[in-house]
Amino acid sequence: MPKIDAIIKERLFELCPQLVLNGFDRIVWMWCRDDMTLYLQHLKNNREMFGGQIKYIEVYYFGRSLGGNCNFICIDLMRKMYEEEVQEWFHMWIRMWWRKFQQRVELRLNKETKRRSCIVKKTNKGRSFWNNKLNQKEREFLFKNAMKTLINNGEIVRPEIIVKQQIFTRLSQKAEKKDWTVEDIINFDKGLRDTLKHLSRGDITFLFVFPSKQSYVEN
User: Fold this and answer.
1) So what's the pLDDT on residue 72?
2) Rounded Cα distance, 201 and 155, in Å
3) What is d(CA 206, CA 63) in angstroms, rounded to the nearest whole number?
4) Where are the strands (E) in the chain, listed by range?
5) Could you tell me the CA-to-CA distances from 215 to 25, 33, 218 in Å, in that order?
6) What residues make up the domain containing 67?
């Protein structure tokens, strides 16, 4: 198990001792780890904050390949240079993530079949447009801008899911449009980013989790 898993579990348990992180609530630390990975990639892509610290986190805590000329002696030196700062960052980031998780994620026991069916239908319609009418460059342009906007506005819990849901929902309203011009892409991008900024300022739930019966049986 990567060292980061132990760090995340320990910190989450400190923040909420009621969590059963090796059982019913394992999805929480798994999401936290995945979201931290995305956040670190966001920092790398936008050349923000960390430098050698990110390399150290990736190799020492996520267990990734050393690569290049980096060796174990190099990692030992990095640990002496960065460990204290990295530990402080872990505590800060996981606390921030947990606070946002509580705000944006809700446990639902009833799946509200009709409402859920409507959402799925819209999502599928928008996804079809996304896959069939936009080329790879257009998709990358829209997705990267949306992710950057969401994370820069403090949304660090499952941002890729939120972005895709917003994109597919908005595209479902344009599924009948046959031609997609550069102007359409630019306008869609602006509208999408404005929507994400607006959503980030509100105190609303973005994600709903529906536990299976097996989850209760196992715990």
Assistant:
1) 63
2) 10
3) 31
4) 105-107, 207-209
5) 9, 21, 5
6) 3-107
Phi, psi of 208 (to 5 degrees): -120, 130
If one counts the domains in the chain, the total is 2
Residue 217 in domain: no
Rounded to the nearest 10°, the torsion over CA 144, 150, 153, 157 is -130
User: Are the beta carbons of 144 and 194 closer than 8 angstroms?
Assistant: no
**Phi (first) and psi of residue 212, to 5 degrees:** -85, 160
- State the Cα–Cα distance between residues 173 and 175, nearest whole angstrom: 6
Q: Which two tokens stand for residue 107?
A: 């446990």
Shared domain for 90 and 43, answered yes or no, is: yes
- Give pTM, 2 decimals: 0.85
Whether residues 84 and 149 share a domain: the answer is: no
pLDDT digits (tens, 9 = 90+) for 70-84: 666 687 888 899 999
CB-CB neighbours of 196 under 10 Å: 24
Instruction: List C-alpha distances in Å: 102 to 21, 204, 207, 214, 217.
Output: 16, 11, 10, 23, 24
